[in-house]
Amino acid sequence: MTAPDTLRSTASAPDAARRTPPPRPLLLHPAVKPLLFVAGLLPLAMLIAGAATDRLGANPAEALIHGTGQWALRFLCLTLAVSPLRRALHQPALLRLRRMLGLFTFFYAALHLLAYGWLDMGLVAADIARDIAKRPFILVGFAAFVLMLPLAATSFNRAIRALGGRRWQALHRLVYAVAALALLHFFWKSAGKHHYGEVSVYAAVIAALLAERLWRWAQARRAQRPPVRIHVPL
Ligand code: HEM
Fold this sequence. Notes:
Layout: H1 3-19, H2 32-52, H3 60-89, H4 98-120, H5 125-134, H6 136-153, H7 157-163, H8 165-172, H9 174-191, H10 197-224
The structure holds protoporphyrin IX containing FE (HEM).
């Protein structure tokens, strides 16, 4: 190596480090989203396989309603967990998964409504309306589903651009009302059978995720508040 080479090689070590891009976070790998998409469809595949091979127990219709309802709630918890996890793990790239998780929440809630409407109610609209009015926990579930509609409809870039960031964010705070209604729906349904185990776990997870947000909001408000000046007459 000639003298200028050594100079170049020695001089350029930090340069070389500066030139080589830092390793890309795993979450930015192009395979992550397709993998999440396949993983999101797995519960449905398992439910269909269970129904096709008669492994959903004595009441497959009920098992399908319960299964789709549970997965809707699980994806809702995952969607709400993205922001706190992003902050706690310093992984901004996690945010790119939130839309898909939110849409899977809507997808399983829609399958849940379909399973109820078709397998439980035989798609007879009058019966569905009567049942929704008669069983308040279903009315609450229905309200949660209706509130999901504008969230799902505005999940695409064009809608975000049309609404503008501030209005889009305000609209998507409806997800907190969806979480509360879905929990009330499940709790009310469970109250009938005094089975509080599962719903309590979901309630604890959602309470922790909302508490983290409340805490951060209170922190931000405290930081904004002007310092209190105490006037001491001399
Ligand atoms: C139109 C909307 C909805 C209808 C008609 C509906 C209907 C039902 C019905 C009939 C049950 C089962 C009751 C039983 O076992 O007797 C149920 C349970 C459940 N629903 Fe919904 N629901 C709706 C929306 C939702 C939404 C939006 C979520 C969640 C995001 C949800 C989550 C659940 C859960 C977790 C259960 C309990 C499953 C279990 O016991 O394992 N539902 N729902």
